[in-house]
């Protein structure tokens, strides 16, 4: 890895660390999303505040930072698949373990979608369809995220065929599942909050 690539990987992490859930909540005069619901600084928890516009802003911001980090690497760093994959992973890790929030961030779903979109628009679309179908059917954001996470590496393998990109998808999927362990327990117990529940 060149020094330039490393610089842009670090930049990708910092971009991923921008806490849109906290910023959008402050903008709309809402409580810190870490203080209610699941305590997760992400769009789904912000939605529990009842302010849809704040949740949408969080969702879009978290997704765009993943896309932006990869785009910057591709255009100003290195277009090599490994560099692209590392930038995507760094942005994702920045969201999940942000330096701005004491390394306690969100689950990473929206940022992962943004990263996947930068890898391939069709990859992101396919995963988004999986998420939407599960979410609309079962009304659980966490279950939808888990199913989309499991689908991503397989779709990437057949759609893109770049080992580095597929590996990045595997790592993100593994971390997403890890970050959802509490949700998995609640799903099994029947106590997981449904989408839109305050």
Question: Overview of this structure, please?
Answer:
With 198 residues, this protein is mostly helical. Helix content is 72%, strand content 0%. The protein contains ten helices and no strands. Helix 6 (109-119) packs antiparallel against helix 7 (121-138). The radius of gyration is 16 Å and the shape is globular. It starts with a helix and ends in a 9-residue tail after the last helix.
Calculate the mean pLDDT score and round it: 94
Largest sheet: none
* Number of helical elements: 10
Beta fraction = under 5%
Global morphology: globular
Q: Would you summarize the structure shown here?
A:
The chain has 10 helices and no strands.
How is the secondary structure organized here?
Elements: H1 3-16, H2 20-27, H3 43-47, H4 52-77, H5 81-96, H6 109-119, H7 121-138, H8 141-159, H9 163-179, H10 181-189
């Amino acid at each position: 890895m060149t020094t330039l690539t490393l610089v842009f990987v670090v930049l990708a992490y910092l971009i991923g660390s921008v806490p849109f859930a906290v910023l959008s909540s402050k903008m709309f005069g809402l409580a810190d999303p870490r203080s209610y619901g699941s305590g997760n600084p992400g769009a789904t928890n912000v939605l529990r505040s009842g302010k849809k516009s704040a949740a949408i802003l969080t969702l879009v911001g978290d997704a765009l930072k993943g896309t932006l980090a990869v785009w910057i690497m591709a255009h100003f760093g290195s277009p090599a698949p490994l560099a692209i994959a590392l930038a995507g992973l760094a942005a994702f890790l920045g969201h999940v373990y942000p330096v701005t929030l004491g390394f306690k961030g969100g689950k990473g779903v929206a940022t992962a979608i943004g990263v996947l979109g930068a890898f391939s628009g069709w990859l992101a679309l396919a995963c988004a369809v999986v998420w939407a179908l599960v979410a609309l059917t079962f009304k659980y954001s966490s279950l939808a995220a888990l199913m989309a996470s499991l689908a991503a590496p397989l779709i990437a393998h057949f759609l893109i065929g770049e080992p580095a990109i597929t590996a990045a998808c595997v790592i993100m999927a593994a971390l997403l599942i890890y970050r959802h362990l509490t949700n998995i327990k609640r799903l099994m117990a029947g106590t997981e909050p449904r989408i839109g529940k305050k």
